[in-house]
Structure formats: structure tokens, C-alpha cells
Design a protein that fits this description.
Shape: globular
Number of strands: 17
Radius of gyration: 21 Å
Helix content: 10-25%
Number of helices: 7
């Protein structure tokens, strides 16, 4: 990792973020197009290039907790890079010693949730390197709302299938191996992951920010707030920019903290109030996406089945043929920890089969 001042303008060329040939995917804060900010897991910028023996990325990072790791796909080979410093432009070498005569595709993506964010200032190629127009992104579009399972939290802890998480500082988290991104790849679709480890649906519940913020007050944003809780400063997302065909809502199991209101009394006033709030949120998604299929679910991570029964009850009350309830074979009992690569692939296969069984969900 080099400092930005080390950039050799006689030997390297900067491909600026506004370059027409670059492709972006994900809920990205591009209010400053010269320095778009990546916050959501799985968001990426992609470039096809030729004539360069290396490719680098220039970033300015801001960490909230954990170490900051970013993902790289060069053609079909995946790698990760650690960002060592905050608050100043740094150069990350994504790949080197490449054959100059070959075309390559680099995808620079957000591995982790909003434990950090970074502004992207461009790619660096060897002087004489050329950016080539890439094939369009998939026409099919998906959107996922979820917690750490959807974000790929600790997914690379492959020796801990069916076990609690090992101690880590973010190096094991990888959105590429989340069930969400894996499902989208299986379906040849692009995906926006609106996901944060520890988040509940309701404000005042869950693990994220000690329960201060839930999905209900964050889902319209381009990112989640950090430890300081300054969520009000996070820009709003323009929903007109991306209209998914399929929306997967996998949230609710973290609402059992600090009080598991469903397992204690799923017919009580607190449980009824939760269901009503959840119902109104799903109706707000329906207003945003009048024609989308909306799949209500949770995940295989351990939680009481009363949460899924409550979600199923809301689904029935909505009485909308394109709002459906889905349960995995091991829903709520598959693992006490986050979902590992192998488990996520199984989830993706199940979800893929369910979506294919709905018929033509991809009509515009």
C-alpha cells in the first residue's frame, strides 16, 4: 500500500471515477461523483482494461470498528486487501505482474458491512494502459434487506460451520460469500445488499450500535451510521435509480435482543405492535416497488420460531399475491453463529429454487 503522493504521473495513468467505461453496482453515495463513497456490503466498481501489467485503486478510508478489508476479483481470482490508514488517500495494489497483451476485468468490492466506508478516487494503470468497454451488467435486479448473514459476516470461518463465531476483526467477513450475492449470481442478476451485522428491524433492538438504530430508520439511507450514531447525516437513497424485480427481506431475528417478545408472548401487545410496524414497512416497500416480488424470510441462524410465525401472519394479512413467505429447511436452527461459505451456498440453492418456482419474476 502506497501513499497517494507516491503516484508516478510519468509511469501511471489515473482512471477517474467518472470514466464512462466503469461499471458500478450497489447503493453507493455518489453525491460527489469524483469520490463516490462505498458503504454497503457487496457494492462494487468494475473495469475492463488492457495494456497494463498492474491495476491499483486509490481510496480514502474511514473506520468505525474492526479492521478494514476490501475485496478484489481479477477475472475469476479473488483476493483481499487491508486498508492500513484512515483519512488520507492511499494506493492499494490490486494485481500486478500481468501480461500486457491480455484483457482483464477487475471488480473492486466492499467485503464488509458499515464497520468502515471508503471514498473511491479512481484506478491506476500503467501509462499506456487502456480501459475497454465491458459487457452490460445483468438486466435482472434484486435487492436484499438483512443483518450480518446477508452481509456475509464471518462467512470465511469455514471451520466453524454449525458453531459460534471465532474471534476476528473483520478479516473473515466477505459479502461475496453471503447467500444473498451467491443467489444473485446463480440467477444471473445484479444485487443491492442493504445489510448490517447485528441490526434489528426496530429501533431500540438488536446488537448494532447497542440497539440505537434499526432497519426501520436506516433502509432509506445510502449507508448505516457508525459508532457515533450520526445517522441523520447519512444521505438519502434515490429509489428511482434502481428498481428491483425481486426484494428479499431477511430481517427480524435480532429483534429478540434485549427482550425476546415473540417467544415470551407472541399474542401480547408488544408482539402485535412489532407485527404492525413490520407490516407498515413492507407496505412502504410495496409503494416503492409496485410490481416487485417481495420475499419475507429470516435465515438459518438460531432464533425462536415465533418470529417466523409472526412474519408469516403479516404476509397472510397483506394478502398480496406478490408478497410471499419463505422458510429454509433449517430456518432458525441451522447454526448458532453466522453463516459460513458452505452453509450460505446451501441457502442460496434453496432460495434460488424457490424464486425459480414463482414463475417469471423478471418481467419489466
Amino acid at each position: 500500500m502506497e501513499k497517494w503522493n507516491d503516484w508516478d504521473k510519468e509511469k501511471e495513468r489515473l482512471v477517474e471515477p467518472v470514466c464512462d467505461e466503469l461499471q458500478y453496482c450497489g447503493r453507493i453515495d455518489d453525491s460527489n461523483p469524483d469520490a463516490p463513497v462505498f458503504t454497503m456490503p457487496g457494492s462494487f466498481v468494475r473495469m475492463r482494461f488492457t495494456g497494463s501489467s498492474f491495476v491499483k485503486a486509490v481510496v480514502v478510508n474511514k473506520s468505525y470498528y474492526n479492521d478494514a478489508w476490501v475485496g478484489v476479483l481479477l477475472d475469476r481470482k479473488q483476493d483481499k486487501k487491508k486498508i492500513e490508514k484512515d483519512g488520507e488517500p492511499l494506493v492499494l495494489t490490486l494485481a500486478e505482474n500481468l501480461e500486457k497483451g491480455q484483457e482483464h476485468m477487475v471488480t473492486f468490492f466492499k467485503r464488509m458491512d458499515h464497520s468502515h466506508e471508503y471514498a473511491f478516487l479512481g484506478f491506476l494503470l500503467e501509462y499506456g494502459g487502456r480501459v475497454v468497454k465491458a459487457s452490460p451488467l445483468p438486466r435482472k435486479k434484486m435487492e436484499f434487506y438483512g443483518d450480518g448473514v446477508t452481509a456475509g459476516e464471518a462467512s470465511e470461518a469455514t471451520e466453524y460451520c454449525g458453531k459460534p463465531d471465532p474471534a476476528h476483526k473483520g478479516e473473515l467477513s466477505n459479502a461475496y460469500f453471503s447467500y444473498a450475492w451467491a443467489t444473485a449470481r446463480m440467477l444471473h442478476a445484479r444485487a443491492h445488499l442493504v445489510a448490517q451485522s447485528g441490526i434489528a428491524f426496530k429501533d431500540g433492538a438488536g446488537y448494532f450500535m447497542e440497539g440505537k438504530r434499526g432497519m426501520e430508520s436506516c433502509y432509506t439511507k445510502v449507508g448505516f451510521s457508525g459508532e457515533d450514531g450520526e445517522n441523520v447525516k447519512t444521505p438519502e437513497w434515490d429509489f428511482h435509480r434502481y428498481t428491483p424485480h425481486v426484494v428479499v427481506v431477511a430481517i427480524g431475528q435480532n429483534d429478540a435482543l434485549p427482550e425476546d417478545i415473540m417467544s415470551e408472548d407472541d399474542k401480547g401487545e408488544k408482539a402485535r405492535a412489532w407485527r404492525e410496524s413490520y407490516k407498515q414497512w413492507i407496505l412502504s416497500l410495496r409503494r416503492l416497488y409496485p410490481k416487485a416480488w417481495i420475499i419475507l424470510t429470516t435465515t438459518i441462524r438460531a432464533h425462536h420460531s415465533s418470529w417466523d410465525r409472526s412474519i408469516g401472519k403479516v404476509c397472510a394479512e397483506l394478502n398480496d399475491s406478490r408478497i410471499v413467505h419463505f422458510l429454509y429447511g433449517e430456518n432458525g436452527r441451522g447454526t448458532p453463529g453466522h453463516v459460513r461459505v458452505q452453509e450460505a451456498m446451501n441457502m442460496a440453492l434453496e432460495l434460488n429454487g424457490f424464486i425459480n418456482g414463482l414463475g417469471d419474476v423478471w418481467e419489466d
